Amino acid sequence: MEEQKPTPENMTMMQGFEWYVPADQKHWVRLEKHVPQLKAWGIDNIWVPPGCKGSSKEGNGYDIYDLYDLGEFDQKGSVATKWGNKQELDKLCQTAKATGVGIYWDAVLNHKFAADHKEKCQAIEVNPDNRNENVSDQYEIDAWVGFDFPGRGDKYSKMKYHWYHFGGVDFNAANGKSAIYKIVGEKSQGWADVPDVDDEKGNYDYLMGSDLDYSHPEVEEDVLAWGKWLAETVPLQGIRFDAVKHYSEDFLRKFITQLDEQYGQGWFFVGEFWKDSLDDMREYLQRMGKKFSLFDAPLVYNFSEISQGDGADMRKVFDGTLVQAEPINAVTLVMNHDTQPYQALEAPIADWFKPLAYALILLRGQGYPCVWYGDLYGIKGEHPFPPSCGGILPKIMLARKLYAYGEQKDYFDFETCLGWVKYGTWDRPSGCAVVISNAGPGEKRMHVGEIHKGEKWTDVLGWSDREVEIGEDGYGTFVCGQCSVSIFVNKDAEGRDKFAQEFNSNIYEE
């Protein structure tokens, strides 16, 4: 008789920052203290913010200056990055490793900011809405494209960047004009071709800052070397790549293959390819050889649309999403730093809908869910927000870790009330029954299995006080409140005592 294999544990990642985290250089320290708590409530991997030196000590790291400075050198006004210094980063990574939590790095490889000096070069202005259309003749501009890294010198890398290492800029210091300039000349290749970059705006190679040109062998060599250096310097389990539709796919494949073969066995790679086009996302994954995942942007758009409507049809929530089409390669999410209030360009998800959305990504078998720091700990800045979901998000995470296993049966038979059951497995037998409603109170008669007959099931969230007795036929009638969610589990199931604990969401306590 074949031995039964243990059921793999459900994995959950967390985006470990929001846009308005205070620029006090204490983020690594705060996060490190909370790693054990996060692990206890079901977080297995943390995507940390870009830890390389930005253009200033207030910069979030997407304004990247030096890949090789992780808060170690006095550059751009401080030794530490916005998040802290290298020693504090090291301590965070070591605590995470000891606790069984992986760290995912946020790699910003598309561009650079805050050049050390200007250089004259030839350029052509292009139409911002169609970068294939020139709107000027070639002429000389004075561009911020000289990077010497005087605070670091030649430590870790001797590479200095000049005009011919970039494909474009957005400012001409000679006349103070802002425009999109394609750099040209004997040493320059111009934009990368479609589909090596995305075809939005004709050619979306240029995004911001001084745009790196990966067709230049010195750029490719230096950034590939940085990948090796990072893998040897910081104990990581994976990388989140920023803005992947804006720079060379060929280069990214080389970068990933190198890490996969030399350092990153079992590493996780995910790209930010933010586009409401499932076809484009699937084609990108195909070209990347599927050794890669993408954030499910279409799902976020669906969540947003449903949450803005009155009694919208939730049965369509997964239509046109990456998690429906490519569940193995989809990272599901509800919010991130780009979609948060006062940062988002588009309507974010309404607060009342977030518990339902998190249930839809955390308690189902498809996709790899990513919980957002701003929903767990709240948002700081000029427009502060408290933690979302009425404080019950950690309980939804814990329910995933303990009970969301086995075969899944959906009850998607009513527009405004969805239900589903996870039947459990031989070694994780509890299972769970979930009901969500985006209108009035919801009710679903669902089958959880004859094995559970006579058991009394209650809502681990405590939002419903209904006690459901499972009948001889394995069915129970499960309920939830208006615009709410309930997660029913046997009240005597292993781990139920953990839901009585308090999650400390005050990460900023002194």
UniProtKB/TrEMBL annotation:
InterPro entries with a match to the protein in the record: A-amylase_thermo, GH, GH13_cat_dom, Glyco_hydro_b
**What is the source species?**
Thyridium curvatum
Q: Which UniProt keywords apply?
A: Carbohydrate metabolism, Glycosidase, Hydrolase, Metal-binding
Q: Which GO terms describe its molecular function?
A: calcium ion binding; hydrolase activity, hydrolyzing O-glycosyl compounds
The protein, known as: Glycosyl hydrolase family 13 catalytic domain-containing protein
What positions does the domain Glycosyl hydrolase family 13 catalytic occupy? 11-400
Please give the Pfam families that the UniProt record associates with this protein. Alpha-amylase
Cofactor(s) for this UniProt protein: Ca(2+)
Return the similarity comment: Belongs to the glycosyl hydrolase 13 family.
What's the superkingdom here?
Eukaryota
One biological process term in Gene Ontology: carbohydrate metabolic process
